[in-house]
Amino acid sequence: MKLDIAQLNYFIAIVDANLNLTLAAQNIHVTQSALSQFIINFEKEESLQLFHRKNGRLTGLTTSGEKLYDQALEIVGKHENLHEMLRQEAQIQEGIVRLGISTIILRLFFTKFIPEFMMTNPGIKIEIIEANNDELVTMLNENRIHAAVLVDSTKLHKDKFEKHVLALSEITAFMHPNHPLAKEEKLNWRMLDNQYVATFNKGFATHTMVMDKLKKMKSHAKVLITSDSWDYMVEATTRTTLIALLPTASFKKYYNYLDNIGVVEKHFHDPIDYTPVVCFPVKKKYNPIEKFVYDSFTKEFSR
Predict the structure, then answer these.
(1) According to the model, what pLDDT value does residue 155 have?
(2) Per-position DSSP letters for 280-299, written without gaps between them
(3) Which of 240, 254, 260, 269 is nearest to 175 (CA)?
(4) What is the CATH number of domain 94-167+276-300?
(5) Most buried one in 84, 140, 171, 282, CB count within 10 A?
(6) Low pLDDT (below 50) residues in the chain
(7) Cβ distance 16 to 73 under 8 Å?
(8) Each residue of 1-34: pLDDT tens digit?
(9) Protein fold of 169-274
(10) Distances (CA, A) of 132 to 70, 86, 104, 225, 263
(11) Torsion 11-17-21-27 (CA) sign
């Protein structure tokens, strides 16, 4: 019996539903009889038992069933990746490039470049997919986006992705001008002891960097708030003694913004480096549109 993708999905659904055929059928929107017939036909034609049984009920996988399950997951995963790759290639031919990027990097680095790029090149559309660093890594590995701007790219295979640094930045501390630490020219991490701090949610590279640094420096800072919003955490410091540990606003317009809302930014003697990189899959030959977009990004941020 030749197994097709649909039948492999039948088998996976049965195992994932703990061998409950009724639940499995509901999950993949087929009839229970279709799943039962699949099992009967396969085991009969292949002379191979996939399931242990007791009183006519499925109770577990045989060794052969376990091997088939592992292989089925791999094959179905590759099949889905193939379809996603084909969809991505079709989008590129249509002039659509899906760029994964976190909200903070989008706000700090791309408010000018992306709109101007699309105005100058009306035949190309950059579709922005916002997510945190971990989610973007997964999307890249699964071919769901064409490229991503990451801060932590260590989870990408170094031989499968090209990486180009967009900017050199760091994590700084934002606070109210009347905060006791605001008078310091630069901070050290132990100055944060017993201070309430805010930073990005888990999944953001900044969160990992900040938490690792606080642990390494044996800081007793109190993490009060985590959020996806840079603006919210910065503005929260205007009404409280909260300190926001976030990527620096190293542009004139953001310094003006900080002045307007009444927030100061303090650097650390031993800062956390924050280095956004644009990452895209290595290919033997890039589509002309794809290459033009990638080259434009690297050229813009190499200035």
Answers:
(1) 79
(2) EE--SS--HHHHHHHHHHHH
(3) 240
(4) 3.40.190.10
(5) 140
(6) none
(7) no
(8) 678 888 888 999 999 999 999 999 999 888 999 9
(9) D-Maltodextrin-Binding Protein; domain 2 (3.40.190)
(10) 30, 25, 9, 17, 26
(11) negative
Other Cβ atoms closer than 10 A to 83: 12
Count CB-CB contacts under 10 A for residue 33: 10
How far is 104 from 106, CA to CA, in rounded Å? Answer: 5
Structure confidence at residue 220 (pLDDT):
94
Structural domain spans, the chain: 5-82, 94-167+276-300, 169-274
Q: Which residue has 């799943």 as its token pair?
A: 35
By the 8 A CB rule, do 275 and 283 touch?
no
Do 94-167+276-300 and 169-274 show the same overall fold? yes
Which residue's entry shows tokens 């195992």?
15
CATH number, span 5-82: 1.10.10.10
